[in-house]
Structure formats: structure tokens, C-alpha cells
Amino acid sequence: MYLDQATGDVYVLGSGGLSVGSLPAIGAAFQGGFYGGLISATANGVATHALIIAPKATGHVLRACKTTNTATAGTASSFDGYANSEAAKDATHPANQWARALSIGGYSDWYIPAQFELEILFRRFKPDNSEGNTPGFGANAYAVPPTTANYSGSVPPATSVTAFQAGNSEAFEAINYGSSTQDGATTHVIQDWFYGPPESNSKTFQQQVRAIRKVAVVS
Questions:
Q1: Do residues 88 and 96 lie in contact, with contact meaning Cβ atoms separated by under 8 Å?
Q2: What are the residues facing 62 on neighbouring strands?
Q3: In Å, what is the CA distance from 156 to each residue of 91, 129, 131, 197?
Q4: Half-sphere exposure of residue 156, counting CA atoms within 13 Å on the CB side?
Q5: Which of 6, 126, 127, 185 could bond 166 through an S-S bridge, CB–CB 3.0 to 4.6 Å?
């Protein structure tokens, strides 16, 4: 079973992986980075993986998704950034190549998050209470628990994790972050960490990116 300490909800998890009972608090140091929350690859509220955020000093950089605005097979997943990154990790895909070459804390399975992995992190680690968020966005069936509340001036609130608050050592920036999710032949999904909504942007435009890794979880 998994107890969400933020909401009091209890979930039954699938089999195969790390016991959720051994997971630390959100934002705590864990397996080469910081524990970022749970995701359900089956989009049914049942957690399948724990997300781990790379340290900012070594896992945060400015990179383009691709060197040309052309389609890349295998990079359309909205929830599996590892699959996207594995499908396109050569020199023509600078962000993925950078992330997949990382070795941090003894781990070498870092990757650029997919759209909904990045959204889960936004919910947990929004750096401050800067100008609200755009209404009409926010549903994420891959989150655990699934989220439906639209963004607003208070949803999500600024993170309570001190290290990730604006100006501190691990803070995300209130700017656009690139994902590994292709949404068109010439574009990929980015997320605005100031207003909130996902957007499409040119693959060749450099974006801030933060590497993550994931581990399977069980009850």
C-alpha cells in the first residue's frame, strides 16, 4: 500500500520494483538525486515508478531538443521520457544526448522527462508564487493521485521543500523547461514554469532542461 501523506489517500501498487515503504519524503536526497513523486504509467492512479530529480549543479543545462526541425521516430510518448530519450540520443538531439551521457551518484540512467513527468514535478516543485497560472490546464492522468484541478494563482502553490524554493540550491527556474515529447514534426512540448501550461516550441530553440531518472515501485 502507498499512503500519500499530503492527502491521506491510500493506494494499492503493482508488483516488481522498489518498496514504496522505503521512499523518503518529497524532495529528500535519494538514489543520486532528489525524490520527486510517483507516476502511473498505466494512467489509473496505480503508481508504477518513483521519479528522481538530478542535482541542479550537474543535471540542469541549456540545450536544444534537436539540431533540425524534423520528425524523430519513437519520441512521442507523453509519459515515458526514458523511451523518448533512448530513441534519440545522438548528436542531432543535444538535450537527450547530454542527459543519457550523465553519470551522477553512481547512476547512468538519467534522461529528459516527458511532458507529464515534467508536469508532476511542476506540481511539487513550483519555485515561488509568481504570477498565477493559466486556467484551463492541469489535468494529468499519469500523476499519483491523478490531478484534475486547473492551474490558478494558488494551484499549484509554491513548493514547501526549502532547497527547491526560488533562489535556493536546487530550485527550478520560473521559465520554460523542455521535455523529450515530440508533438509535431518540427516541435516538441515545453512547460512554462511561470504561467503553467504546456506549449509547443521549435525543436532547435534552446530550452532549460533538468535530467531525471525513475525506479519501479511496489507495495
A1: yes
A2: 208
A3: 36, 9, 12, 12
A4: 23
A5: 127
Closest among 146, 126, 150 to 11, alpha carbons compared: 146
For residues 186 and 69, the answer to whether their CB atoms sit within 8 Å is: yes
Taking the C-alpha atoms of residue 40 and residue 47, their distance in angstroms, rounded to an integer, is: 4
Cell 530519450 maps to which residue? 85
29-30 sheet: strands from edge to edge: 18-19, 212-218, 49-53, 33-39, 29-30
Q: How far apart are CA 75 and CA 56, in angstroms?
A: 25
Distance of CA 177 to the CA centre of its chain: 10
Q: Say if CB 217 and CB 49 are below 8 A apart.
A: yes
- Cell output for 135: 486556467
The grid coordinates of residue 113 equal 522527462
pLDDT tens, position by position, 52-74: 999 999 999 999 999 999 999 99
Compute the chain's Rg from CA coordinates.
16
CB 189 within 8 A of CB 177: no
